[in-house]
Amino acid sequence: MNLGRTDVLIIGAGAVGTALARDLSRFDIQVTVVDSLNDVGGDASKSNSAVVHTGFDAPPGTLESAMVVSANPMYDDLCRDLDIPFRRTGAILVAVTEEEEAELPHILEKAQANGVDDVAPLTAEEVRDREPSVTPRVRAGLYVPRESLVDPFLLVVAQAENAVENGAVFLTSCEVVGLRHEDDGLRAETTRGQLRAECVVNAAGLFADKISGFLGIDDFKVHPRRGQFHVLDRAAPLGIEHIILPVPTPITKGKLLTPTMHGNWLIGPTAEELEDKAAHNTTNEGLTEVVEDVRKRVPALTPAFAISQYAGLRPVREPGGYHLRTFPDLPGYVELSGIRSTGVTASLAVAPYARRLLAEMPVLNRAKKGGAFRPKENAVTTRKGIPCFRDSDTKTKEALIEQDPLYANVVCRCETVTEAEVVQAIRRTPGARDWDGIKRRVRAGLGRCQGGFCGMRIPGILARELGMSVERVSKKGTGSELLDGRTKSLRETR
């Protein structure tokens, strides 16, 4: 099947790919984004700590430092314009040993070298004044006021929705299985057909080495580093308001405890070097390690507070570092690799950087007769999110129900999610097509009972809205259907 031609093909619909799609969609450029998964959000972009970093501890003088430091201030305007949950909570780096305390001056020097000048030292008493739940064994700390929180999946969804409104096309369940350079551009072979493009941007994260390998680029490899997390009940008596950070190591930023945008807490991650790029499972050892490490700083924490667990895979590049590059012998090809634990944060700065790389390529401007980067006259720069019934005041709730009676039907009791919100999550573009897509967009199924109540209701809504049988409704795409053969047989005999 021939999928046609596009100006720019972006491979990967994670934070970087969708940020670039939104950026490019404001110009006279046809943008197509493909991803092997069945939804936007990528892998690492939807399975991380949801922290927007300042870059205070990035290696000074690196491309990573430049991207992260410049991206952080962009979040205020972007999240306002696209109606994305965002909060500048601040973080406290907590030292509990003599060795950790000795590292704090070096970290402060690094922050200043990175231009993050508002990091401030704290005494043990000052740490405890700000966060009484921190261990009495604390020796000192650092305050990082602009470390912030975002909903990382809604960050991706909102930018994808805005890009689509400006004409971008997203093709999910569309894996690139071949890529070659030809006289008239680049040709991608996908599991959904063939696609030709003037330019291709490799934002494939874990699989960036595979995509570049199709073009004979073999000077790097990417392996996964697994990070396991516990999600804690919002009723846990912790009272933590800041992001609580450990003293980082050369391998990992360590295991943090952080509030989330939705009222509960998150602890993690581990940093496990793997080879299997599909190892999304959690382990008892890893989850135990998370609890034991975080308790060194917040001793009130217990595993009893956990209501769910998950694992994300960070793409670790060897040789390391951010690599945002072009190739003289491959006109039209841009590779964005090595963007790992700080990637969600950096994505807002990586996008215009990648656009500038594209603008320097004669091939795109030649194809568009010099007008590739002419701004669209009516480009849309804002987006309105799905109104959250749970967080609305009484007057607003009444107005929502008046506007749409489905707001009166609560389908998820733990998170107070209504049928109206679920329906909107499905009808948007790109919209939810499975259970996980609903969870990530409106949080149904993410409360204490983990879908025990709404799990009997949402599959029916998905089936109705998508025009399919309920037996075809899945958790995360083909092969993860919620009803197995035995359930179906029982249903048919009743």
Give a brief rundown of this model:
The chain has 494 residues and is α+β, with helices and mostly antiparallel strands. It has helices at 15-25, 63-71, 74-81, 98-113, 124-130, 152-165, 208-214, 284-294, 343-359, 362-367, 394-403, 419-427, 435-442, 458-466, 485-493; strands at residues 2-11, 31-34, 51-52, 86-87, 91-95, 120-123, 140-144, 148-150, 169-171, 176-182, 185-190, 193-202, 221-232, 243-245, 256-259, 265-268, 272-273, 306-318, 323-326, 333-337, 410-412, 417-418.
Q: Would you give an account of this structure?
A:
Helix content is 31%, strand content 23%. It has 494 residues and is of the alpha+beta class. It folds into three domains: 1-87 and 149-220 and 319-385, FAD/NAD(P)-binding domain; 91-145 and 223-311, D-Amino Acid Oxidase, subunit A, domain 2 (D-Amino Acid Oxidase, Chain A, domain 2), CATH 3.30.9; 394-493. The strands form five sheets. Strands 1, 2, 9, 10, 11, 12, 19 and 20 form an eight-stranded mixed β-sheet that branches. Strands 13, 15, 16, 17 and 18 form a five-stranded antiparallel β-sheet that branches. β10 and β11 (185-190) form a beta hairpin. α1 packs parallel to α6 and α12 packs across α13. The longest helix is centred in the C-terminal third of the chain and has 17 residues, at 343-359. It is globular. The protein starts with a strand and ends with a helix. The model is unreliable at 489-494 (pLDDT under 50).
